[in-house]
Write a structure and sequence with these properties.
Layout (H helix, E strand, L loop, with lengths): L3 E4 L7 H8 L5 E2 L24 H10 L1 H16 L2 E5 L4 H12 L3 E5 L16 E2 L2 H15 L5 E2 L3 E2 L25
Parallel strand pairs: 1-2, 1-3, 3-4, 4-5
Antiparallel strand pairs: 6-7
Length: about 180
């Protein structure tokens, strides 16, 4: 069981960096490298998958052992996570995963390292993170929640995490240390 499920896309170039960054704070489920498995690709079932009919797609989704295995691995990780982070840009699967997490009452956030078309329904998410400093603060709050912090505020943020002004610039902490704390 991982603390954090990261929903994104195979094509998202930010994803690997975000996974490695998040691992500094919490345990992370990486759909590209799930434990004891490999990331799923439709091409491993059929190299001609882009030309399937809807009937073929439905049959393979319902009956193919590899599709079922991959779905069950990802879904189990999603259900057991305490928090879900969507990393944009991404597509349908990631948004379905985030919707599940919101409905399940998990702590949720959307990380948008670049501007995208506005999405009204992101209003149901705990937080929209616009930069690494905000991402780090959110991850610290999730770390405290996962460690059993009981002083929770609305939106999935622990009251023990101080607000960090936007004027503080992001720095890489090679030693895994904490960002500057402003009380």
């Amino acid at each position: 069981m991982s603390d954090l499920y990261i929903a994104s896309s195979w094509r998202n170039s930010y994803y690997p960096e975000v996974v490695e960054f998040a691992k500094r704070y919490v345990s992370v489920y990486d759909f590209r490298n799930p434990p004891g498995n490999k990331g799923f690709s439709w091409a491993e079932i059929d190299p001609n998958w882009k030309n399937w009919t809807l009937e073929q797609y439905q049959q393979i989704l319902d009956e193919h052992p590899r599709a079922q295995e991959a779905f069950n691995v990802d879904m189990s990780a999603l259900k057991s996570a305490k928090a879900t982070l969507l990393v944009g840009p991404c597509g349908r699967s990631a948004h379905l995963e985030l919707g599940y997490a919101v409905g399940a009452g998990q702590h949720t956030a959307v990380y948008l390292p670049e501007m995208q078309e506005p999405e009204l329904m992101y209003g149901m998410v705990g937080k929209i993170l616009k930069n690494k400093l905000e991402l780090e603060a959110w991850l610290l709050s999730i770390k405290l929640i996962c460690q059993g912090c009981t002083q929770l505020a609305l939106g999935g943020h622990c009251m023990l995490v101080p607000a960090i002004p936007a004027a503080v610039e992001w720095q890489a902490f090679d030693d895994g240390g904490l960002p500057p704390v402003i009380l």
